[in-house]
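[step 3/7] fold_predict: job queued, chain A
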Amino acid sequence: MKDYLPYAAGALAGLLVAFLISRLLMLSETPQLILFALLPAVGGALVERVCHRRPNNS
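[step 4/7] structure written:
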């Protein structure tokens, strides 16, 4: 369960960014759906990759 924590944190961050962008640009329907599908997945993957890479460098 502990291994999923970086991904979950990144997905949450991506979701918050998606909400922010959606509100700022007043998106609706398809662009909003794409934004909410991609940003949490990309955010989770990026944070997970950074967290797994960092201990290997030390």
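[step 5/7] annotate
The chain has one domain: 4-53.
The longest helix spans residues 30-57.
exit 0
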